[in-house]
Each structure stands twice: as structure tokens, then as C-alpha cells.
């Protein structure tokens, strides 16, 4: 049965069976029903932009320099960082991941870890040379996302031990590295920040840009 699950042979398997198998590893399974097509994508994108705009406004109010949607191609790994934030006095780089929905905990941790590991290289084209690289996962302030974090609390607490007060205190005066999770309301986003979040893109340097075929 375990072998069938590992190979993706799920026909005839109940959710109770899947939950029992995953529970051994401290994991859980969630089902997401989607069917709104392009309209659904637009709704999610608008919410992502609002949350990203709110985070930009908050960090900049604390004196951080920010760059949204920074793309990268490093050592065969590609993607984009929702926000790179730079605190010049402490030479601290903060790699911010914005999630409107916490669907896959494993994927979130894996990709955020990759971005943090490559953070110094990703920031180099911006002229930033960090001595400390930290990370922050930002989720919308709603009950659904809090329930999902709570359902995976053992894994999430290990990956993101700093929460709420500790995160805010550190962002005001960063000392050392941090790995934190913050629930943030998107109502604080100004129109300017939301528009910036939607439109601005920072491309990798020529040294890291993949060749066009």
C-alpha cells in the first residue's frame, strides 16, 4: 500500500488511508478544488499583489530597501523571489516569500530554502553584499491560513520558529539571522505599492541570464 502511494497509484485508496500513512512522517494531506479558470487566477493574483504591497509598505516604513519580484537563474535553479529586502546598516538580506494560500508545506519549505541559500548570489546584481541572510514567510491574516499552519505546526515551527512579536522586533532592528512566519493584513497596502507589486520586475544580470534558444 505504501509503495502504491509512493508511485502515485491512488485509485481505490481512501483519504483516511493517505492521512494515516502521512501522519507517520508528521505530514498531512489537503484537497483543493479549483474550477474558476482564468478568473480564479486573476482573483488570486490580485490578492497576492495586495499582500505583497502591504509587506513592501511595512518593511520600507522600518527603513528596509526593497525589490519585488526578483528573478534568478543560478546553478541550474530558477525562479523569482517575491521580495528581497536590504538593511544596509547591518548588511542583512531578508528573503521574503508571500503565500496567499498555504497549499503544499513541503513545496513552500523546499523553494524558500533554495531562495535563501542562493540569496547572496541573487542580490549581487543589485549591488548588495550581505553578511547575514534571513527569511520570512508572509501569509494573509485569515482563519483558513492559521488553521493550515496549526495543522502542520510541528513542521512549521521547526522551519519558522520566529513568529509575530519576535519577527516584528527583529525587522525593526535586525541582529543575526532569523527564520520567521508572519500573518499580515493586506488592507494596509497603498495603491502605489500594489501597482508597484504588479508591474515591477528585476531581471538577473547578464552573467546569470539563461541563453535564449
How would you characterize the overall build of this protein?
By secondary structure, the chain is an alpha/beta fold. The protein has 2 domains: 31 residues, no CATH class; 162 residues. The chain has a 6-stranded mixed sheet with strand order 1-2-3-4-6-5, with helices on both faces. Strand 1 and strand 2 form a beta hairpin. The C terminus is likely disordered.
Q: What is the CA-based Rg, rounded?
A: 19 Å
Approximately how much helix is present in the residues?
A: 40-55%
Topology, number of strands: 6
> Helices and strands: which structural class?
alpha/beta
Structural shape: globular
Mean of residue pLDDT values:
83
Largest sheet: 6 strands, mixed
Low-confidence stretches: 36-41, 200-213
> Helices and strands, in N-to-C order?
HHHEEEHHEHHEHEH
Oligomeric state as shown: single chain
Strand % is 15-25%
Strand order in the largest sheet: 1-2-3-4-6-5
Count of alpha/pi helices: 9
> How far apart, in Å, are the first and last alpha carbons?
44 Å
Taken together, the total number of domains comes to 2
Amino acid at each position: 500500500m505504501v509503495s502504491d502511494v509512493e508511485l502515485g497509484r491512488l485509485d481505490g485508496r481512501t483519504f483516511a488511508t493517505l492521512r494515516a500513512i502521512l501522519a507517520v512522517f508528521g505530514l498531512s494531506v489537503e484537497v483543493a478544488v479549483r474550477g474558476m479558470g482564468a478568473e480564479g487566477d486573476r482573483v488570486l493574483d490580485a490578492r497576492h499583489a495586495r499582500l505583497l504591497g502591504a509587506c513592501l509598505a511595512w518593511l520600507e516604513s522600518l527603513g528596509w530597501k526593497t525589490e519585488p519580484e526578483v528573478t534568478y537563474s543560478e546553478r541550474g535553479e530558477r525562479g523569482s523571489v517575491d521580495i528581497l529586502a536590504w538593511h544596509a546598516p547591518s548588511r542583512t538580506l531578508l528573503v521574503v516569500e508571500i503565500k496567499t494560500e498555504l497549499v503544499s508545506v513541503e513545496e513552500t519549505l523546499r523553494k524558500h530554502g533554495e531562495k535563501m541559500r542562493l540569496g547572496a548570489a541573487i542580490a549581487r546584481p543589485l549591488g548588495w553584499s550581505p553578511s547575514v541572510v534571513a527569511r520570512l514567510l508572509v501569509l494573509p491574516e485569515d482563519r483558513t491560513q492559521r488553521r493550515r499552519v496549526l495543522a502542520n505546526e510541528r513542521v512549521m515551527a521547526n522551519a519558522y520558529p520566529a513568529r509575530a512579536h519576535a519577527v516584528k522586533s527583529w525587522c525593526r532592528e535586525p541582529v543575526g539571522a532569523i527564520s520567521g512566519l508572519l500573518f499580515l493584513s493586506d488592507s494596509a497596502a497603498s495603491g502605489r505599492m500594489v501597482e508597484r507589486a504588479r508591474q515591477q520586475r528585476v531581471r538577473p544580470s547578464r552573467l546569470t541570464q539563461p541563453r535564449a534558444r
